[in-house]
């Protein structure tokens, strides 16, 4: 067969295929190149391996996300429980402060105010005592410098 005949036959075959869209270009009875068949088989096998790997990777990512989600849910529940306990403890502490500590602090403040007033009174009394002593010495005529 010459090149023209091969070209014409190929064009004719392509033309025939185009006229019958339901026809496939693969015919079981046609002899095929064994190298081409081997390469096609390898291509399909490798494509299958690649797609299986992609699916497996996607599944692994999905499983990992599920595990992360479960862990986050557990941690969130733990944190929520911790927050509830902290709130409860804080409320108890505030209640104890209001009922036990605050009255004591108010008593301490009252004692401090009374002590300050007592101290001021003691200073005034001391000053008054010194004045009285000075007058008493003056009335008795005792000279401090002669002794």
From TrEMBL:
Lineage: superkingdom: Eukaryota
Family (UniProt): Belongs to the BLOC1S2 family.
Family matches, as PANTHER family: BIOGENESIS OF LYSOSOME-RELATED ORGANELLES COMPLEX 1 SUBUNIT 2
One Pfam entry name: BLOC1_2
Record-level Gene Ontology MF annotations: gamma-tubulin binding
Name used for this protein in its record: Biogenesis of lysosome-related organelles complex 1 subunit 2
GO-annotated cellular components: BLOC-1 complex; BORC complex; gamma-tubulin complex
Any one GO biological process: endosomal transport
């Amino acid at each position: 067969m010459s090149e023209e005949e091969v070209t014409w036959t190929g064009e004719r075959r392509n033309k025939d295929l185009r006229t019958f869209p339901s026809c496939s270009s693969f015919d079981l009875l046609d002899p095929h190149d064994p190298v081409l068949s081997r390469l096609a088989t390898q291509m399909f096998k490798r494509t299958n391996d690649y797609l299986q790997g992609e699916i497996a990777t996607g599944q692994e990512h999905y499983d990992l996300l599920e595990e992360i989600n479960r862990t986050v849910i557990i941690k969130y529940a733990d944190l929520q429980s911790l927050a509830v306990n902290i709130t409860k403890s804080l409320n108890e502490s505030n209640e104890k402060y209001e009922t036990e500590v605050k009255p004591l602090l108010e008593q301490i403040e009252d004692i401090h105010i009374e002590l300050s007033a007592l101290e001021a009174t003691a200073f005034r009394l001391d000053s008054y005592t010194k004045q009285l002593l000075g007058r008493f010495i003056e009335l008795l005529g005792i000279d401090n410098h002669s002794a």
